[in-house]
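call fold(seq) -> tokens
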Amino acid sequence: MSLGKKGLGRILAGAGLIILVMGGLEAEYWGRVIPGVKVAGINIGGMDTNQAAAAITRKTNQMKQIELVWGTNKWTISLADMGAAYDAGETVAEAMKIGRSGGWRRILSERYAATQNGINIDPIFVIGENNLIGSVASIAAQINVPAKEPEVSYDKAGGQVSVSPGENGQEVDTRLLVELIKAKLAHFDETAITVPVVAMEPKLNEAQLEQAKERAQKLVGKQLTISFADGEQKWVVDDEQLMTWIDPSTSSGWKQDEMAGWVAQLAAGVDRVPGNASFLFVGPGKVQEFRPAKEGWQVNQDQVNQDVLAAAEKLSGTDKTAVVELTVNKTDPTVKNSQVNNLGIKELLGRGESWFSGSIDNRIFNIQKATEALNGMLVAPGETFSFNQAIGEVSANTGYKQAYVISEGKTVLGDGGGVCQTSTTLFRAVLAAGLPIEERVAHAYRVSYYEQNYQPGFDATVFQPSPDFKFKNDTSAYILIQTKFDATAGKLTYDIYGTSDGRKVETSKSRVWDITPPPPDLYQDDPTLPVGKIVQTEHAAWGAKVAFDWKVTRGNEVLQQRTFYSNYVPWQAVYLRGTKT
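ret:
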């Protein structure tokens, strides 16, 4: 349908009028706020940016503090205390956008609204949330009165049940109070805020008291039994414990959160992660069970909570006893005992050795503990073995002792010192087995233990969470790690068993160059040691660059070929010299 010449003319004329009005108004208020714009009630319409900022600043300078009242008590929180500050410049910038930004419909709408009824915006300000919350919490602490919950008590000797009604309390609604304070700042409102206080009313009335007492009396002499594993494990909840779960102020009549907490505590002692079977190689084609597989289980707490609540309800009636069977969700181990004959563990693939003679007792203890943790461990075909993951947490919490470790360029006492002896020994076994090594990091300096009966460069350091030592089982069968700790000889032996696929390993001798002597010995005065006493904290070590070649083949196929590099920095001997008289 055609508009016609007249229709088109009216549209063009209207558009021209809009442009003319908008252009005229913009020309008249160029660099100024359009009329009718206010900031928290302050009229800044027609002002230029400097005038508007000055008007806002005059008002914000008057806002020194917020007053709070509750009853006859009064408190004040200064803007400085709450970390609050107004930004007049940003506020004016927002005001200048009104009637100027957006499409022409929005511009016309805002300008019309401003001239007719005015447009009010909030000032822009920043506030220190932690400061404000801290100030509010300090005031709330002066008002809050904790409620005292009703209590059911039972004198077992006398057979008497009593119920205390409890006491009501009060608590400041801190979240609402913070919002009220922010609203006062946004509106330049200096009037006092009445602190919002919520009544806490656990106190029982006479009917509730009687109901609670009646329920408690019905529980006298009754008990709830939790049974697990066909009765092999049992937990008994007696009448006194049952009474503590009574809550007459709720529709259910029971403190279900406390019941759930009791069940959660019980579950923590029952839950068990599944344990894979691990095996010990005893001869060609044979393995024997080393650690049996363990089925895992986890208590179904939601179901047990429902069962305990239902049992407690029955006991508050005519039932004398109640039994709840502990519901658990079972999880099978990945490797079961029945798989012992089809894991493919047939022969020795590689052996690694290291010596630790001269180590301090704590270091030897940690070496043995880590060695035992690795013994009998299986690596599935295609699986990447992580030393840190396999060994678990290394700390005093898991039984490791303090021995010397390298940390931030110093040798210091730390939990698990000596664990690197086990990662180094495993590294050597993996090299001999020809398995792909995915992560290996050399030590910062040459360690004498790792060069006993071995060339330099055949070491691997670990630390949690990194660096780690990782290798991959790229064979078609499981791999068994078997470890041996010989305290008498001061020796570790790690064997890797599996199924050979005919691969051959060639390892070159170490190449050593750029040998650098250690820096001169350093003596540091120590006022805690007596004069004349000297204690060595660091031992000197020569620096060097070391490399060796490693090649793994199968027939004419090259499976692995790489050069392992180690850059050992020279290490300075450090002595503490006593100065204490």
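The longest helix spans residues 4-28.
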